[in-house]
Amino acid sequence: MVDVTIIGCGNLGSALITGLAKAGNHDVTAYDIDESALERVASYCERTTSDIEEAATSEVVVVAVKPDIVETVLESLELSADQTLVTVAAGVPIDFVNAHTDATVVRIMPNLAAETADMAAAVAWDEVDEGVRALLADLGEFVEIDEEHMDVATALNGSGPAFVFYFLQAMKRAAVEEGLDDEDAEVLAAQTVKGAAETVLRSDRSVDELIDAVCSPNGTTIEGMEVLWDSDLEAETGDALAAAARRSRELAEEFEHD
Ligand SMILES: NC(=O)C1=CN([C@@H]2O[C@H](COP(=O)(O)OP(=O)(O)OC[C@H]3O[C@@H](n4cnc5c(N)ncnc54)[C@H](O)[C@@H]3O)[C@@H](O)[C@H]2O)C=CC1
Ligand SMILES: O=C(O)[C@@H]1CCC=N1
């Protein structure tokens, strides 16, 4: 059992807590200044606290507050060199966090699918941290990247779930327009996205080969694919990703000027 504290139990912090509870390999302490946030996660963790000193005793301390609150939290958090501080905040550089703590700093870009242990995460570290590696492995898939690529990771796997939710909803709405029941359409759209993603992760075939495998000659799929290939969807998706990455770089600049 690795002791982990999650500081900030909002959307992301609570997803991490729920996912870790599912895996069962961590002793989790939840800390927040908002009592109602602690109440919402209480059944998924070993303890909740609003005492920062108690929160600071774990081997791994994850700071999951909004980027503009990170500095306040770091200033109240006394960690030692044998502890690890994990930062998840968009745009907050490792150097900034290092300047506020004696702990080893690991920067990750997680996502909301931590809740079901289906998280995609990118991690940047000077040296592999075994405690964080085990935590990430429990929550889904992760890749190691250089910190300079954190902005694009933030856009791809941090913001990415929202982009996929949007696409899923567009598929669902179109099916409802064609007459399908709303709930049935949601189940079919969501399971289709999940299955397609699993297929990409588990298959040796490229995405283009997989598209080809669904497109029967003179069948239905090719008719839809022709519409997508003729559309601006690929360019628009690229623009959405670029806009999110640009915002991550902007946030980082704010920290460099501090
Ligand atoms: N929401 C997402 O999908 C993702 C968020 N992140 C990062 O995670 C961080 C948190 O984002 P969200 O969970 O969406 O925000 P949120 O607003 O849902 O949650 C933040 C939590 O921090 C708490 N908080 C505020 N001040 C605090 C303090 N001084 N001490 C302790 N707790 C405090 C709030 O009460 C709240 O429960 C951000 O830095 C964001 O960039 C990263 C990847 C994905
Ligand atoms: O929108 C945001 O700023 C955070 C970071 C990545 C996902 N949510």
Account of the protein in words:
Belongs to the pyrroline-5-carboxylate reductase family. NADP(+) binds at residues 7-12, 64-67. One of its GO terms (molecular function) is pyrroline-5-carboxylate reductase activity. Residues 4-91 form the Pyrroline-5-carboxylate reductase catalytic N-terminal domain. Residues 147-251 form the Pyrroline-5-carboxylate reductase dimerisation domain. The chain is an alpha/beta fold and 258 residues long. It has two domains: 2-150, Rossmann fold (3-Layer(aba) Sandwich); 160-241, ProC C-terminal domain-like fold. Helices cover 53% and strands 16% of the residues. It has twelve helices and eight strands. The protein has an eight-stranded mixed sheet with strand order 3-2-1-4-5-6-7-8, with helices on both faces. Helix 7 packs across helix 12 (233-256) and helix 8 crosses helix 9 (182-202). The longest helix has 24 residues, at 233-256. The protein is elongated. The chain binds 1,4-dihydronicotinamide adenine dinucleotide (NAI) and (2S)-3,4-dihydro-2H-pyrrole-2-carboxylic acid. 1,4-dihydronicotinamide adenine dinucleotide (NAI) is lined by residues 7-13, 32-34, 37, 64-67, 69, 72-73, 88-90, 109-112, 158. (2S)-3,4-dihydro-2H-pyrrole-2-carboxylic acid binds at residues 90, 154, 158-159.
